[in-house]
Amino acid sequence: MSRLFGSVRARATLAATVVVAIALVAAGTAVLLSLRSNLNDQAGTEAERSAREVAADLSGGASYDRLRLDDDQRPVQVVDAAGVLVAASEDLRRISGTGTDVVKPGPPRPTDAAGGGATADDHGGDRGDDDGGDGHGGDDKGGDDRGKDGRGRGGGEDDDYASLRPGQIGAEVSFADGSATLDGDTADYRFAAVEVSVQSKGALTVYAGAPLAAEQAAVRTALTVMLTGLPLLLAVVAAVTWRVTRRALRPVEGIRSEMAAITASEDLARRVPVPDTQDEVAGLARTTNETLAALETSVERQRRFVADASHELRSPIASLRTQLEVGAAHPELLDVTGAVEDTVRLQRLAADLLLLARLDAGERPSGTRFDLAALVREEVSRRPGVTAHCASAEVVGSRGQLARLLGNLLDNARRHARSRVAVTVRTDGPWAVLEVADDGAGVPAAERERIFERFVRLDEARSRDDGGAGLGLAIARDVARRHGGTLTAGEAAEGGALFTLRLPAPA
Predict the structure, then answer these.
(1) How far apart are the two ends of the chain, measured CA to CA in Å?
(2) Where are the alpha helices (DSSP H) in 163-212?
(3) What is the helix (H) or strand (E) element at residue 297, kind and residue range?
(4) Are residues 475 and 381 in the same domain?
(5) In angstroms, rounded to a whole number, what is the distance separating the alpha carbons of residues 121 and 137?
(6) By the 8 A CB rule, do 413 and 497 touch?
(7) What pLDDT, on a 0 to 100 scale, did the predictor assign at position 160?
(8) Euclidean distance between CA atoms 7 and 448, whole angstroms
(9) Res. 139 pLDDT band, cuts 50 70 90
(10) Angle (CA) 239 249 237, round 5°
(11) Helices (H) and strands (E) in the chain, counts
């Protein structure tokens, strides 16, 4: 299992499936909530219409027994200001969610029976007189009762209720969910409460319900469709993602297998296949090939360096050995001076190779701060025939490595100059600039970059004893780069070579 989900294909498929599942669940929930809200609003509208129809009949003076309470087969209650049920649907057996759970109007009192049609009015008036002498005093009590069961009105709505004029229907309507048993069938309903003031009956509240069966059926149907379709859709998403990911990663597998083959064969001349696309995989393949090319160049350069170093070391070692063997056999023929010169040349070559190895290993220069002009004057004093024009220019780095760089440039210039070598130090904005110029033959423009390669000597006629191993300029450029600077070759004003070193000045 861990190996399966360790693959990019499996993780991408799982991630896509999870994201789609979350999106579908969120969208489905929003749809169900919206559907339920709309259907609830529709049921509330129907309940309000039914309640207002009954309220209109009451405001028109219709008696309780003439109200249209059973026309739509919906539960209807009429409650007076005291919370007493005065009219209800004939087949109503049980109800919840309205102002009262009573389903049958109570029998009239004896005094009410004698009063005929004024029964309810007298009943309400007595309640009003008992509560405070106001003809609508019972409204507050009824409002308080309804507020206690969660379906009454607040203080502001009580004011509206009490301010209704006889024959006026209230503009406000409140809604509540409940259930009722009507004609033997129990169902859930959305109840609307509408207030009406009747001249002969006082303040009344009409509760009418609209069935929620359609809303519940629609929500169940939508939920069933979603629960059935969601797994199928997720399966399709997973399958498509798996196939698309496999196709997208096929070039990556080709790159991996080719890299494995290159590693096994150690043939850096091979290259990975580049897909015929413009996507990230093609960019990866191109970058991999560029890395292989750079690695091949580096390995080839290292091989050439080792071969050249072996060749350069062979000559002084062979010469020194020959002189020592001759001296051992014939002491009077020992060339001590030549042996010392070969030893010194061998020592210098070993030092150059060691410095190059340290630079290739990424050795960083020290952070010493010093005056480049002082270093130039020190190096020039050791070499006759070299002139210097120096202005103070501070740099940060390794004084020893920069001395080696300057020494290599001066030695190279003296070997090629006819009569004059000039050194200049100046500042140029954020740069400290050192220039070494000679009046020799100069460097051809086509060779001005090649001379900085290792073991390169343009003057083939020059002997190794006079010209060195061809490492001085290569070392000088590497040192300059390690110090964040540049070293370039150009043409001097006298026609000879001009080497320009630029180093960043300290902040």
Answers:
(1) 58
(2) none
(3) helix 280-329
(4) yes
(5) 13
(6) yes
(7) 52
(8) 52
(9) very low
(10) 15
(11) 12, 13
Give the whole-angstrom CA distance, residue 67 versus residue 395: 107
Domain holding 330, by residue range, is 280-348
**pLDDT exceeds 50 at position 124:** no
Same domain, 60 and 208: yes
CA-to-CA distance for 361 and 455, rounded, in angstroms?
19
Taking only the tens place, the pLDDT of each residue in 252-278 is 888 888 899 988 888 888 888 888 888
Q: Which of 393, 354, 397 is nearest to 374 (CA)?
A: 393
**pLDDT tens column, 51-87:** 898 988 888 888 888 887 877 778 998 998 888 898 8
28 pLDDT higher than 70: yes
Residue 459's φ and ψ, nearest 5 degrees, are -85, 95
**Backbone φ/ψ region at 409: left (φ over 0), alpha (ψ -120 to 50), beta:** alpha
pLDDT digit string (tens) for 438-489? 998 889 998 899 898 887 776 543 444 445 667 889 889 999 999 999 999 9
Which of helix, strand or coil describes residue 436?
Answer: strand
How many whole angstroms separate alpha carbon 466 and alpha carbon 460? 11
Mark which of 173, 194, 217 sits at the end of a domain: 217
Q: Same domain, yes or no, for 284 and 166?
A: no
Sheet harboring 85-88: ordered strands across?
85-88, 76-80, 202-211, 185-198, 169-182, 92-96
Q: What is the pLDDT of residue 5?
A: 55
> Can you tell me whether residue 101 is helix, strand or coil?
coil
Q: How many CB atoms lie within 10 A of CB 332?
A: 5
Q: Which residue, 6, 146, 142, is CA-closest to 80?
A: 142
What is the chain's Cα-based Rg?
A: 52
Bridging pattern class, strands 421-428 and 386-390? parallel
218-233 pLDDT per residue, tens = 989 999 999 899 999 9
Strands 169-182 and 92-96: antiparallel
Average pLDDT over residues 182-201: 88
Does position 156 have pLDDT exceeding 50, yes or no?
no
Same domain for 484 and 375, yes or no, is yes
Residues 299 and 377 in one domain: no
pLDDT tens for 385-414 read 899 999 999 999 999 899 999 999 998 999
pTM above 0.90, yes or no: no
SS3 186: strand
What is the per-residue pLDDT for 73?
77
d(CA 90, CA 59): 21
Identify whether the C-beta of residue 39 lies closer than 8 Å to the C-beta of residue 215. Answer: yes
Give the residue carrying structure tokens 């209109």.
Answer: 56
Is the CB of residue 178 less than 8 Å from the CB of residue 98?
Answer: yes
Beta bridge partners of 396: 369
Write the DSSP string, 28-62.
HHHHHHHHHHHHHHHHHHHHHHHHHHHHHHHHTT-
Rounded Cα–Cα distance for residues 108 and 277 (Å):
92
**What is the number of structural domains in the chain?**
3
Same domain, 375 and 293: no
